[in-house]
Write a structure and sequence with these properties.
CATH topology of the largest domain: Rossmann fold
Helix content: 40-55%
Strand order of the largest sheet: 10-9-8-11-12-13-18-22-21
CATH class of the largest domain: Alpha Beta
Number of strands: 22
Low-confidence stretches: 1-5, 98-106, 134-147, 752-756
Distance between the termini: 80 Å
Number of helices: 24
Strand content: 5-15%
Largest sheet: 9 strands, mixed
Mean pLDDT: 77
Shape: flat
């Protein structure tokens, strides 16, 4: 009932406004004298009957064109639909009712006046209702117009009128003839409506004046030029006699100057810096680019920030000696240590969000030579909307020094194989597994199955996901991947379509002492879940591997290499797409050097590093998970995909950086101690096996290795032999078998001196 009453009210209001427009054009034509023609009395007999007919015509036309069904449409779309319908209707009325034998200037003026009145009356009330509805919901907007923007709109209308009048005034040397003044009055409504429409169309009421820049100026030029051309059309169409053409050019120039000037004047007033601060922390800004400029403006206009910017440093020689908002560029980055002392700098902010890892480490090296506190602006991927604000400034982190480029994901390709699918993640409580859970959840799977045998880590990731994704169907399961019967029940009951296999033993020294556990988990666990995935006809299976599988020196690496071979080999006999993704270390993952170093620094040291030359590949946790998903979308059956890890990083440099990030001095406050390579470790890791023939893919950070297949029957036999040895805990025989299967494996373990577990 409520909806019908609302529709009835709309029709009733439309009927009243249509009558007003009809009466208005009668009055303009026959009574006011504003439109050319003979004055005649308007009696009920010659008005009411035509008004009733025309009202019925318009209501029928509005219904036919669906104007009463567009409740969810924006104000802009409603006005466009209304304008189109009225234009069509006026054309029909011209054909049916208007006396075209009258002189054309008079008839066209009547038509145009009627069209304007209809659009003005009917469009205005729709705009008002929509605006009121938006405010009733608690917002202060109607199609991106706030009360302030309505004030801007009113101000622009005044400017348009002043400019138009001034154009006539300038054209006639300060005194407008009476005939031309009448022309001005008759055409002013047309000019105001078209100017406003053009400014609205080009988005000039959706911006904020205090941020007006070159884009706003270009929009003003476009809107003014377009509206001037549109204004010319009806004036020439209506054949307004003696209309001065130079008014178009003068009016255009004045509108650009005044509307643009008002916007930029407001920005200039708001951004005019106060007198330089002589108190507050003496601040040095690294980077005199856009980010440094925005940061300085933020500091100067925010009185609550207790900073006194003393200068910039920038490696661009063209900026040497210039001033930005009165603050000089004092030198290059290498001058930071000297400037800290000579200028009494107390704090440094690195304002280069696009800096690479090498650049950040170099700047960081200059900063850490002093006792000045140093902060940074986060990378561009963390800055929303490209605007820099002081509340985004934070301490320098390890990932800043790593300097990994933001991952450019093919969102549509990933969405195709994850959205609406049942996804199973093994090892869901681990570092990689839990980050995969977070990333996959963002692609709206129909079901997310979390499988892990560690209850605590599984509990925490479940709680986090339920909080962040309350509508997601989560199914956390405690299960060992070697529990074949339970895995079968899970597959039959939950029917996963995509599996990310992250579960594995990854700690190199521990697996050196317990090779039987590495075999059971990394090889046999993978074998079981591969077989069950094949039987369940899973669409895609993505196994996560490691760079330690390449020419392995550890049990962990050798078992992961055999798991890779098994997944590759099985892909040839299955409809399931089995894909392997291989990458290096993940910064901050459980058991990695970063949390170990953090613990050692907190304890006061020393930090233990295995060797002064040891290097490792690193990437961030989120980058690794994103690229695993992307690789899963790109990979086909049997592929081994390699993630671009960038340049390897010296572990001793990582240790020194972490000590400095803690506000301490390496070798003074915290010592670095070299303890020698542990069992299974090597100086440098590699990402691909010789002979794999690495090729690029469609993604710049993902490579594909050509498969190197193992004889399948022999592989099955060897894996079965390893299973028997693992159950019997014959460690020396396991090492020999691994060496036999992977000739490149260089074992370092010696069990003759080890005690049995």
């Amino acid at each position: 009932m409520k909806g019908k009453l609302y529709l009835f009210e709309k029709i009733a209001i439309d009927a009243v406004l249509v009558n007003l427009a009809f009466f208005g054009v009668f009055w303009l034509r026959f009574q006011s004298g504003l439109l050319p023609g003979e004055k005649l009395p308007v009696s009920p007999s010659n008005y009411l009957v035509p008004a009733a007919v025309v009202t019925g015509f318009w209501l029928f036309l509005f219904t036919l064109f669906g104007l009463y069904r567009k409740r969810g449409a924006s104000v802009y779309n409603q006005i466009i639909a209304l304008a189109g319908t009225i234009t069509f209707g006026v054309f029909i009325l011209v054909l049916l009712t208007f006396d075209l034998s009258d002189p054309f200037p008079r008839t066209r003026m009547v038509i145009f006046s009627y069209w304007l009145l209809l659009i003005g009356f009917l469009g205005s009330w729709r705009f008002m209702i929509a605006y009121k509805g938006e405010r009733g919901k608690g917002g202060a907007r109607a199609n991106n117009l706030t009360i302030k923007r309505l004030g801007v709109l009113g101000g622009d209308l005044v400017i348009f009128a002043i400019c138009y009048y001034s154009a006539f005034l300038l054209r006639f040397g300060g005194r407008i003839p009476s005939n031309d003044f009448s022309t001005f009055l008759n055409t002013l409504p047309l000019v105001l409506i078209i100017r406003f429409g053009a400014f609205y169309y080009f988005g000039l009421y959706r911006g904020i004046w205090k941020y007006a820049g070159i884009n706003e100026l270009i929009s003003i030029l476009k809107a003014t030029l377009a509206s001037s051309l549109v204004i010319m059309a009806p004036i020439y169409f209506l054949r307004v006699a003696g209309y001065p053409r130079s008014v178009f050019v003068i009016d255009w120039a004045l509108v650009v100057l005044l509307t643009g000037g008002m916007r930029f004047a407001l920005r200039a007033v708001r951004e005019t810096p106060p007198l330089s601060k002589s108190s507050g922390k003496r601040l040095l800004i690294v980077g005199a680019g856009d980010a440094g400029d925005m940061l300085l403006r933020e500091i100067k206009k925010n009185k609550g920030l207790d900073y006194n910017p003393v200068g910039f440093v920038d490696d661009d020689l063209n900026k040497a000696g210039v001033k930005i908002h009165g603050v000089p560029v004092l030198g290059r980055c290498e001058d930071i240590p000297e400037l800290i002392n000579s200028r009494g700098v107390e704090e440094i902010i690195i304002a280069i969000p696009s800096a690479t890892g090498a650049q950040m480490r170099r700047i960081f090296g200059y900063c850490r030579r002093s006792r000045a506190k140093f902060l940074t602006i986060p990378p561009l991927k963390e800055i929303i909307g490209g605007e820099v604000h002081f509340n985004q400034v934070r301490e320098v982190r390890m990932e800043d020094l790593l300097g990994r480029e933001p991952v450019d994901l093919d969102m549509e390709l990933i969405r195709k194989y994850l959205e609406g699918k049942a996804v199973l993640i093994t090892g869901a409580g681990g570092s990689i597994g839990s980050e995969l859970c977070r990333q996959v959840a963002g692609f709206h799977p129909a079901k997310l199955i979390l499988l892990d045998r560690a209850e605590n880590s599984l509990f925490y990731i479940e709680m986090e996901l339920r909080e962040k994704f309350p509508d997601l169907y989560l199914c956390p399961l405690i299960c060992d991947i070697n529990n074949g019967e339970k895995l079968k029940r899970i597959m039959n009951n939950l029917n996963p379509q995509v599996i990310f296999h992250s579960a594995a033993y990854k700690h190199v020294p521990l697996m050196e002492d317990h090779p039987e556990e590495a075999v059971l988990n990394n090889i046999l666990g993978t074998k079981r879940i591969v077989l069950i995935a094949h039987q369940a006809k899973v669409e895609k299976f993505v196994m996560i591997s490691t760079d330690k599988a390449v020419r392995p020196s550890s049990v962990m690496g050798a078992t992961k290499r055999i798991a890779e071979l098994y997944v590759q080999g099985f892909s040839k006999q299955s409809q399931t797409q089995f894909v392997t993704v291989r990458f290096g270390n993940v910064l901050g993952s459980q058991g990695s050097v970063v949390p170990i170093f953090q613990h050692q620094i907190a304890r006061g040291g020393p930090i233990t590093v295995t060797h002064p030359e040891v290097t490792r590949y690193f990437m961030t946790l989120s980058e690794a998970a994103q690229l695993v998903m992307q690789a899963g979308a790109l990979g086909r059956g049997g592929d081994i995909l390699l993630l671009d890890m960038g340049e390897p990083l010296k572990i001793v440099d990582l240790a020194r950086d972490m000590i400095s990030l803690s506000g301490l001095d390496p070798d003074e406050d915290v010592q670095i101690k070299f303890c020698g390579l542990r069992k299974g470790e090597k100086l440098h890791e590699e990402l691909f096996v010789e002979g794999e023939g690495v090729q690029p893919t469609s993604h710049e950070k993902i490579l594909v290795a050509q498969p190197v297949y193992y004889d399948w029957e022999k592989l099955e036999s060897d894996v079965q032999g390893l299973e028997e040895l693992a159950h019997q805990v014959k460690r020396e025989e396991i090492i020999k078998k691994l060496k036999e299967m992977i000739p490149a494996y260089k074992p370092t373990v010696n069990f003759t001196r080890e005690k049995d577990a």
